[in-house]
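Lab notebook page, bench 4
Experiment: in silico fold of construct C2
Operator: M.H.
Input chain length: 502 residues
Purpose: comparison with the prior construct
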Amino acid sequence: MSLRKNILANYLSQFYVTLIGIVMIPVYIRYMGVEAYGLVGFFSMLQAWFMLLDMGLTPTMVRQVARFRGGAMDVLMLRRLLRALEGIFIGVAVLGVVVIIAGADSIANRWLRVEMLPKDDVVNAIMLMAIIVALRWLCGLYRGVINGFEHLVWLSWFNTAVATARFVLVIPFLLFVDTSATSFFTYQVVVAVIEVIWLTIKVYALLPEVLERHIPWQWEPLRGVLKFSLSIAFTGAVWVLVTQTDKLILSTMLLLSDYAYFTLAVLVASSILMLSAPISGALLPRMTKMNAEGDEEGLVRLYRQATQLVGIIIVPSTFVLAFFPEQVLWAWTGNIVIAQRSALVLTLYALGNGLLALAAFPYFLQFAKGDLKLHLIGNALFLVIFIPMLVWAVNMHGMVGAGYAWIGANLLPFFVWLPLVHRRFVKGLHARWILQDVMPVVVLPMVLAFGLQRWVTLPQSRSMIAMGLVAIGLGLAAAAVASSSWAREKINSRWCSQFARG
């Protein structure tokens, strides 16, 4: 499989999924109301917390499929592992649905601060959320298998189709059927059922045939991967705690309408992480395969090149969101209240997510090596520091405090912990990584964004503001490309090749 095609397909799909999810939100608010959209934000948070039950099994499946393709295991072992994981996923999914449905009434009446929505509608919506979350979580296992096979072009088209069904085709449903939260989530249940069936069919089409037609559920296939899975599980748990604790705390502190404003800002800021996700999706199986083949030099080269590529992509968007938050929100929603209430939160979370996207790279290196000991220690320390700081900041300053805590949490390990990780796996890498791969693509765009914020006045028209923001983003992207040694080398190589042909 072509890594370039996989990354391109991932990016096109992720860009579409991110864009359509963000673009449609003002439409949801228009037809459902701000408070009902607060339920959608609560659903997103609930889905993220459900990932704690993953226990590191989905990333483990990605790695084992990549190892199978590298010749480290046979197809029967792979099929037995998949069957074992399917049993666990289905069992946990059913248990999760039962628990959430049982607690739906308490969540609606005691946890969420609902003002206008009928309580019965909220309870029904929470029950439907439970089913959707369980089905989408099960889809993660099958996406992991497809990812491991590096069939990312197909997966990208599939994700695009599913996103269209979720975000766009729901609008006619709301217009012609019902605009209630219950109807919205009922529609999403139907989409989730179709999604899981389609992914299951694709996975079993990819798996080579074996003589054993019936493979029973067994615990044995999990023994060899349990240690790695538990390492990933801890990492996943830390990730959920770090990225979702603020949302959990604020969901009970804020009115549901105010929670919607917070969710809007965080969602827009999360586009930065979504833009970097396709790189990791294509990078993890390829780096794992290269490590299995003993190609250390190629692995480090790919690691550094991918860092610069992610920087070129996420740095411009980070600074557009951070330096022009109110303009972004106004151009997007046309709602001055949303723009004013959410602007500062957007700035803080955009900067924090930009740091996080770059600081995530040492994890990719450890994942490929199959050694997550330092990652576990680092995340444990991070959690010990971050959670108390977050709770204090949220209680003192609400959603703005959460933003400041998020920046601090992602800035500290970037300079304190990552040097230790790089030294452990590739001596002498960290200084080159910071000075040659990270800083060049950050400094010039940051200075340019700061200057544009101070000296450029955007027009008042929404369409003109949008055009101005696009122009600023392109300017920052050009600055990032010009600052990247890898990008300059690629451009020069392509130019010389074209010149030689001419």
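Observations: The two ends are 31 Å apart (CA to CA). The chain has a mean pLDDT of 83.
Next step: discuss at group meeting.
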